[in-house]
Amino acid sequence: MAEQSTAMGSVKRVIDVVLPLFIVALLVALCVQLLLPFAGLLMWTIILAICFYPLHLKLMARGWKSRWSATAIGVFLSAFILVPTAIAAVSAASAVPDLVASFQGANTPVPPPSPKIKEIPVVGAKADAVWTKAATDWPAFRHQFGPQLANAARWMLKQAAGTFVAVLLIVVAVVLAAVTLAYSNAVREFINQIFARITGNRANAEHYMTVIGATVRSVANGVIGVAFVQALLVGIGLFVVGMPGAGVLSLIAMVLGVLQIPVVLVTIPAIIWAFSVKTTTVAIIFTVWSLVAGLSDAALKPLLIGHGLEVPMPVILLGVIGGVMAYGLVGLFIGAVLLAVGYVLFREWLAAPTKEASEATPLKAAE
Questions:
Q1: What tens digit of pLDDT does each residue of 151-164 get?
Q2: Is 205 in the same domain as 176?
Q3: How does DSSP classify residue 221?
Q4: 157 and 45, same structural domain?
């Protein structure tokens, strides 16, 4: 009888321990499930708030109230995102009627290729033949490549719709980031408490918050900032030379720069077009400008990425590239932050005294 009551007591103690843990785990799982659809939006909100927190502090130091400073930053960022997007959208939309009319008409919308096209290695002869057919017999070219052109048009419409949705989400993230900045002191204290519980004390919490914030701002300046400058230079060349769809191509160059993909995917076709329809002098000047714009990131990234951080630039770049491959665009920051924190932890582990060193210290003192 005593053994049965002991067993029943043991079962009761197990239930008392397991049941609360199960309820807490279930609550956490349900909370994560509810927040998962907003994970990307929340990540961009945190990233934008971190990036513009120093500017927020500077404005408050000049006498601005927290809410007015956050509102000004939110309005400026929203305009900064929406105005170029609107220009690119108007540029693309204005070209659509002419493109549709040219595609449906009997007259060819394609100029004849330059004789230099044949000189391109490997693909020159085939490209010249296809281009010549499009320029001389447009109805036959449209009949032969109609399915491919339709698939390409559907793909472009799908990408345009996805880009529009992404821009709207970023604007929403900007609004939420402005709200976060308005209550930045309370938010920072809350995050500090979380990190203090994880790391053991507030000093470590402040250290890792500093590392994360500096890494995010370094990636924003060195990746997104450089991509913007590069796309601006490419866009100036495209608009000056009169390239059709220059606004859309500039936006594509910006996306390629952010994703760490060479912008030659945009500039090389533009250079080929320039040599086929412009004078040789204009085409050469445009080629030189495009090369300078394409290589500008090589000079700017070392100046901006990792500057002033305890994490080397190669570690940040590896995190950026790996993060994009693993998590998409937001992986720019996730990958860089994870590798930066991992690198700091690794260095602290290496700097910690070993068992042999701690045993040798009392012996030297005794001697």
A1: 777 777 777 777 77
A2: no
A3: I
A4: yes
